[in-house]
Amino acid sequence: MPKDLSASPGAPYHRRWAALAALLAAEAMNLLDSTIMTVAAPVIHTDLGGPASDIQWFSAAYTLPFAVLLITGGRLGDIAGRKRVFRIGVAGFMLASLLCALAVSPAMLITARAVQGAAAALVIPQTIGLIRSMFTGDELARAMGSIGPVMGLSAVCGPVLGGVLTHADVLGSSWRSVFLVNLPLGLGVLAAAPLLREDRSSRRPRLDLTGTALAVLGTGLLVHPLIESDRAGGSPRAWGTLAAGLLVMVVFGLHQRRRTRRGGSALVEAGLFRDRGFPAALAASVLFFAVVNGLMVVVVLQLQLGPHADVRSAGLTLLPWSCAMAIASWIAGARLVPRSGSRVMFAGLAALLGGALAAIAVYATSPATAYPWPLPAALAACGLGQGLFAVPFFTTALGRVRPHETGSAAGLLNAAQQLGGTLGVALLGTIFLHATALGPPTGVTTLSGARSAFWAAVGLIVATGVAAMFMRRPAAVAEPVSARSVSARPVSARPASAKGERLD
């Protein structure tokens, strides 16, 4: 049995704040790389050539392995030490970034992006464990709370930085600089990595390699025909690929169930599915992040292919979305969720729906070749909705699970978020590109494609609301609040009423 290297209660690690900076920098590097690509992808496609579907693969090739390998990456940290796996992941991320910058073909770039995603799956799961090993008491809450603002700032800076770097064309690097920026960031993280305190689980879990392989294969088979639909159309091959993906995912579910019954360490904790709440949360996560990730790609594509806005203008257009999201997230966490609980989720969905409908109106009335100036206001409403939804969503979803299931639940929610983003880019991006598939993109066809994609997003938002309703436990079956249940619930949830009703 390996020794548990986590910090002992009452003895916080003396280099904890400097070490925290390294962890936060790694988190920011990961999110920046994702949001930068949203803006740079059309420019990359113009330079490297290839089918239009490659634009979607530039993002999906990263998020797909990141999503399905997150839980395995977390368990590798439990086994080999979180500090060690963190450093390996950062080094791999830097190497993959360099390969992306040197890519001479779409295939080379897509392959390097997949390696990036796999490396990120080694880095991100270690962050929470390492923070918990170095901080205790009130300082732990402060350290954990610092992740949100950093992620919000990264979301704000990502599109702008991607647009500025690509437009600046530093030393003729063009879009390649969006990957080269990871090198100094990564070197800084590796230089500070010795400040981290090694930490691993006191119980050595086993890797579920078969389950991981089935998850990778199944999701890949599902995503591929969605992205390649313009080339494959409704061919029997495309439908066969989708059917094969569904079959593999069924086999994956059966494998997880069998492994759990035999006492093995499965990727998916079976107890999380004891009632409807957590499966509904997973569905809501996939649907919601499919909307926000897919729409960002559609906005950038329309601007660059329709009115031929430059990459810097496309990045600045997304700035109101990012800023509104960051501000709304802070307000939701500090003010609204403690007072209103999960009801804030539906306010967020309403704002997101209003923003999507406003964007449809903008695309329906804007001149075909002019920049749609009312669009940033509509996107700000979308960002407001994203920020208001995300904070209570994760609070509500994790508030339903038992303490020993929290780690597995958080991993699954993060994986669902990344998978949803991948599916959103595939689905909404394909709907948009379908409108321009019959000829060169024009202002008229891109406006039509954007409207179609946003209407599809409206349907996904409504479906998200339905799934979110199932996340809320009916008052008739609510558990009475006890000292034990209160301690296990998130601090942002309100106490129950005198009648025992849960107000989350």
What's the story with the biggest beta sheet? none
Radius of gyration: 22 Å
- β-strand amount: under 5%
Structural class: mainly alpha
| Shape annotation | globular
| Helix percentage range | over 70%
Count of helical stretches: 19
Question: What is the helix/strand order?
Answer: HHHHHHHHHHHHHHHHHHH
Q: Which spans of ≥5 residues are poorly predicted at pLDDT below 50?
A: 1-10, 475-504
The end-to-end span amounts to 40 Å
Extended strand count: 0
Overall pLDDT confidence: 83
Describe the structure.
With 504 residues, this protein is an all-alpha fold. Helix content is 74%, strand content 0%. It is globular and about 60 Å long. Residues 1-10 and 475-504 have low confidence and may be disordered.
Based on the model shown, name its key terms.
mainly alpha, 504 residues, 0% strand, 19 helices
What is the element layout, followed by pairings?
Blueprint lengths: L15 H33 L5 H27 L1 H20 L4 H29 L2 H9 L1 H22 L8 H4 L1 H11 L16 H19 L1 H4 L3 H26 L15 H29 L5 H7 L1 H22 L2 H23 L9 H25 L6 H29 L8 H29 L11 H6 L16
